[in-house]
TrEMBL record:
Coiled coil: none annotated. Belongs to the binding-protein-dependent transport system permease family. It comes from Dictyobacter alpinus. The gene is yesP. This is Putative ABC transporter permease protein YesP. Gene3D superfamilies: MetI-like (1.10.3720.10). It is a multi-pass membrane protein.
Length: 330
């Protein structure tokens, strides 16, 4: 008898192989995804527990009269947020904070850039000088505050001792109206962090551009204004954003520089010139035990920081230069 067996079509085999390869590919992608989430899980867990949950909890209690002790919460709705608009101390602290940021952020960036320009050259012991200028930025803020308290003390401070050499009067630096000036000087003492960032940016400027401009007769100012500064603008943009966010949240320095060396019990003794917004928030939390209202103050500050950050980003198109534009073209 003749065999009636018909061999399978070639197309059927190809389809089967294709399906098996797709299954293997899906399994391989699935295993890769599992490995990714396994290694990322510590960060994801930390983000959820240490960031998302505290934010949600702070948002919740901002609508209550929580005092930090009692377990009974009374829902007050938007009353805490409405009280912010009638809190003269909060608005005065916010204005001081904005003034503080307007002074420290440009001066800090300009000072760090100036130091970077001075140290971005070949000379003897340049590494030593960079280290010396960078060290103040890594000194703990508590140690810096103690040093400045000793320097600006009215009776035993080195600043007044120097003034007395010229028969000048002793000045009470740590109280109004000079306390705000001491705070500014203390913050600008740590220019080394900005110097390192700017120095890294300067070393990324192509030497060929500078040499070509020098050959064409461009002076130092023209090379800085037309070549170095535009090439450095992304680095400066990064510093503007981060320093502005940091400045608007300043808390520790005003507390520590206040007379007596400020912890929680000294918050009301902070000179009025150093009563920044976050100092007022700290007092509402830990001095007046108004956790609900303090949380509302923090969310208002968050909204302000977000708005200022967005404005900075929108303005970046006017002054930040990128070698590759947003479309990916050179």
């Amino acid at each position: 008898m003749l065999s009636t067996h018909v061999p399978p079509e070639r197309g059927t085999n190809a389809t089967t192989v294709s399906r098996h390869s797709q299954v293997r590919r899906r399994r391989r992608i699935g295993r890769s995804s599992l490995r990714f989430y396994f290694f990322a899980s510590p960060w994801l867990l930390g983000f959820l527990v240490l960031t998302v949950f505290p934010l949600g909890y702070a948002l919740m209690i901002s609508f209550t009269n929580f005092d930090g002790i009692s377990e009974r919460l009374h829902w007050v709705g938007f009353n805490n947020y409405l009280d912010v608009f009638h809190d003269t101390l909060a608005w005065a602290g916010l204005l001081r904070t904005v003034l503080y940021a307007v002074i420290t952020v440009p001066c800090g960036i300009a000072g760090g850039l100036g130091l970077a320009l001075l140290l971005n050259r070949r000379m003897r012991a340049v590494g030593l000088f960079r280290t010396i200028f960078y060290l103040p930025s890594v000194v703990p803020v508590v140690a810096t505050a103690i040093m400045f308290q000793l320097m600006f003390d009215r009776d035993v401070g080195g600043i007044n001792a120097f003034i007395e050499l010229f028969h000048g009067p002793a000045i009470s630096w740590l109280i109004d109206p000079t306390a705000f000036l001491v705070l500014i000087i203390m913050v600008l003492w740590g220019l080394g962090g900005g110097m390192i960032i700017s120095l890294a940016g300067l070393q990324g400027v192509p030497a060929e551009l500078l040499e070509a401009a020098r050959v064409d007769g461009a002076n130092a100012w023209y090379r800085f204004w037309r070549i170095i500064l535009p090439m450095l603008s992304p680095v400066l943009f990064f510093q503007v954003v981060t320093n502005m966010i940091y400045a608007l949240q300043t808390l520790v320095q005003p507390l520590l520089i206040s007379p007596g060396g400020g912890a929680g019990q000294n918050v009301v003794a902070v000179p009025s010139g150093n009563q920044l917004y976050m100092v007022h928030v700290y007092a509402e939390f830990f001095y007046y035990q108004r956790f609900g209202y303090g949380s509302a103050l923090l969310w208002v500050l968050f909204a302000l920081i977000l708005l200022i950050t967005l404005l900075i980003f929108r303005s970046s198109a006017l002054w930040v230069y990128y070698e590759i534009d947003q479309g990916g073209n050179n």
